[in-house]
């Protein structure tokens, strides 16, 4: 999971973050996004086109089209944004990194069979020696 704290995110910032994730996890064939300006930007459209990734836009006003992300956004709001104060952008980024580390590596999730997200991903990922045999 990639979380970015900023005053405003452009399509270029989103593309850079997706590049960072893609280099570690590989590239999906499609990404579901809402209709926010950072996702409808020319920069993100060009980024996706160059990589052969389809941008699948949700219907306006239909958060249920992307229920998993909307659920995560609610959890982020309830557990992080509504309970922290931020003095600076740097402060927000540091606190966000700590929350993300706890969320991904220390907190079991019932929807993942009581594994942490990192344990779940590692249990399903192709290991390097397995990939060499494919």
UniProtKB/TrEMBL annotation:
Residues 108-134 are annotated as: Disordered. Gene3D superfamilies: Ribonuclease H-like superfamily/Ribonuclease H. This is Transposase. SUPFAM superfamilies: Ribonuclease H-like (SSF53098). InterPro entries: Integrase_cat-core, RNaseH-like_sf, RNaseH_sf. The lineage of its organism: Bacteria, Pseudomonadati, Pseudomonadota, Betaproteobacteria, Burkholderiales. PANTHER family: BLR2054 PROTEIN, LOW CALCIUM RESPONSE LOCUS PROTEIN T. One of its GO terms (molecular function) is nucleic acid binding. The gene is mab2. Residues 1-125 form the Integrase catalytic domain. GO terms for biological process: DNA integration.
């Amino acid at each position: 999971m990639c979380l970015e704290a900023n005053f405003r995110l452009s399509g270029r910032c989103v593309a850079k973050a997706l590049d960072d994730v893609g280099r570690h996890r590989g590239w999906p064939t499609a990404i579901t996004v809402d209709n926010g300006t950072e996702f409808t930007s020319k920069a993100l459209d060009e980024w996706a086109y160059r990589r052969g990734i389809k941008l699948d836009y949700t219907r306006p006003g239909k958060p249920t089209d992307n229920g998993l992300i909307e659920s995560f956004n609610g959890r982020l709001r309830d557990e992080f944004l509504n309970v922290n104060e931020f003095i600076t952008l740097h402060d927000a980024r540091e606190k966000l990194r700590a929350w993300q580390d706890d969320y991904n590596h220390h907190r079991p999730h019932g929807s993942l069979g009581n594994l942490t997200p990192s344990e779940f991903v590692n249990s399903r990922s192709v290991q390097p020696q397995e990939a060499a045999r494919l």
